[in-house]
Amino acid sequence: MHYGFTGARAIGGPNHPMTRSRTGLFVVSAGIVLAFFSPARAQDNYEIQVYSYDTVPPRSTMVEIHSNFTVEGSKNVEGGVLPSNHAMHETLEITQGINDWAEVGFYVFSSIQPDGGWMWVGDHIRPRVRVPEKWHWPVGVSLSQEFGYQRRLFSDDTWTWEIRPIIDKKIGPWYFSFNPALDRSFHGPGVNEGVAFSPNFKFSYDFTKKIAGGLEYYGAYGPVTGFDPLRDQQQQFFPTIDVDFGPQWEFNFGVGVGATRSTDHLIVKCIVGRRFSWPHGKAAKMQPAGTPQR
Questions:
Q1: Which residue has the higher pLDDT, 258 or 195?
Q2: Which of 24, 72, 96, 195 would give a disulfide with 37, using CB separation of 3.0 to 4.6 Å?
């Protein structure tokens, strides 16, 4: 999650021309994507994260390392896909703020196999737009799209597209975020299966000003026209901790347990992020790391 980096400037009321153009941007983005949906295989354990609605400020870059180790997972090659047991996944995420309501992220996925060394897995690009704070919506809302490639050794579906609406809310020490993601495959067995639904959810509680503990949930239910049987769905629960090391930092740690036979049974994950502001970027509003304050 991109904690703590809000800072939209006032744009005007709902009838302001720029406000209307941003509304149109959300509608066009959603319409184009929904017109092409069919499923992708979800939750590949490279970037295990429930998103908050906020975006990286303009003239700022967020660099994150996602590290995930599968303590107990699949042990055999299945359909040409390598097993996940004792694999270490390292993902580099670089996100550039475009303006007060948009950012673009880029991922480089890699996997360290127990017997195969360090291998490149694939790359994704992720543009995201959000509702500016000055609109005064009661909840934070943004829309993320993610498109990219993963090698056949690591995924049944190689070219995929995800659209992820993000809705979150901070209520006192409590924080809630819901990401009802939809997935599409361009190449692989998922092409003909219809729209795939992969909901993610997080809630956390601020135990101190620096430490929040919570629970993250990751699911992959299968096509929306008829969910997979429960045993074939992916269901993961991650007790997590978020630590505030300062307004430029992000830290998230969790241990995940799979609840179905199709899910890796035990995963340890850690996300470490650092924001860098470029010349004139100090004008961007900064908050302590943590969930957005509304």
A1: 258
A2: 195
